[in-house]
Amino acid sequence: IRKRHFVYYNQVIKPALVGLTGPWISGGIEFNWPQHHRPTTFLPTDYRIENNADGSITVWCNEVERMFRTKGMQGFTLHPGKAYLEIRVKIYNRTAFPQTFLWWANPAVVVNDDYHSVFPPDVHAVFDHGKRDVSNFPIATGTYYKQDYSAGVDISKYKNIPVPTSYMAIKSKYDFVGGYEENVQAGLLHVANHHVSPGKKQWTWGYGDFGRAWDRNLTDEDGPYIELMTGVYTDNQPDFSWLQPYEERSWTQYFIPYAEVGYVKNANKDVIVNLDVKEKKAKVIIYATSKFKNLQVVLKEDNGTIHIEENTDVNPAKPYTKEIAIGNILPENLVLELYTSNKEKLLSYKADKAEIKPTPTPAQAAKNPKEISSIEQLFLTGLHLEQYRHATYNPVDYYMEALRREPDDIRCNNAMGLILMRRGQFAQAESFFEKAIKTQTQRNPNPYDSEPYYNLGWSLNMQGKIEEAYAAFFKATWNAAWQDAAYFALAQIEALKQNWMEALQLIERCLI
């Protein structure tokens, strides 16, 4: 409708050394999984095109990544009569062991002097990578990325950030994040369930000489861009989540070109709204991603007094705008509600009461293992370093310090065994799992958590001790958390023996 690329369109393929294995290009939507700037970002991918019964078309992309052998799929769907791009994602841990992952879908967008990011109204602070630094938002008042913003600088505006800068929103109750060009009154908005998609980030090369140099590195004539990064099961980089053996997760994200609304106050995949209150006036702006007949717009006070109650037709080419005088009514006393022609509530918005919120504390670096007083914290620190794939700290140092103090600790023995097993040191791993099980079963032969039995089964299996492995896997099935993976391992053993009926029965049990 606006005759514009709502995602940055780079007319040239001009690789630069940004990806984990080197080449990387700007433009489009980059999918960062299971690690940021994944090694395969510049490699070919499998794809399939589906023509759906409702007239929509889906393009599926598929990859088995080469770091941890997990599988990821993205389905890009355009629906008739809908002004958004729907992306359905599926990820699957194909392996027998827990793996970590992050997911950031990063659209690049054109920027200029009139561009600003659009974060939800409850975002008052942003973090750097690893939450190692923090700034107030949108008005920065301290030092961030070694830049002095003490005068009070609006860092939501591209032109105010002179150096390469990342910022990631703290927790928000809203489902959207985006960016907007005031000069053309248009932008891009991402919408996804904030309970699984809390990640809201902006990255820029900076509005300065360094940024312009990178513009030249990555494009010939399409100019600067920023990345609007959207994280699922992650709110920071690095911030990894766990996928258990053979676990699958799926979710849906929407990328929406929108117009007129400016600073969005609330949004879903169907409508985007702004309620702007200033100078004793309230301005309501509504953008719809499809045609809505007789959309009911209600603006009222929280005491029930009605200021707007009318029906209107809206569509992507025809946003709704209305401004009224409201006197001295405060923003937090107004409620905006939208209803379909069937009287179903489509969206609502009520501002929070204005208050000064405390700035979060940055994350602290891990202590030296010998400086940590408790076994609990040694284990948790080691697990954190594993989960976040830390480049300079070694989780083994923390687990082994814990085991030096308490040789029979269940969790640290299990963790050390798993590290050794991932390294292919199966015999050494076996002794750690056995020690964990010995502690677990001192008072009860049926432990609360059977993960050490499951891991022992794999360490034995990889050494060719099939019968011992079989017994360990079966004991692991006594616990629901490990039942599926353990029955699958048992089915694999029966299949190797060509005991097909037994294998089928075990497969059926792992699917229950």
UniProtKB/TrEMBL annotation:
InterPro entries: DUF5107, TPR-like_helical_dom_sf. It holds the Pfam family TPR_12. Residues 5-257 form the DUF5107 domain. This is DUF5107 domain-containing protein. The lineage of its organism: unclassified sequences, metagenomes, organismal metagenomes.
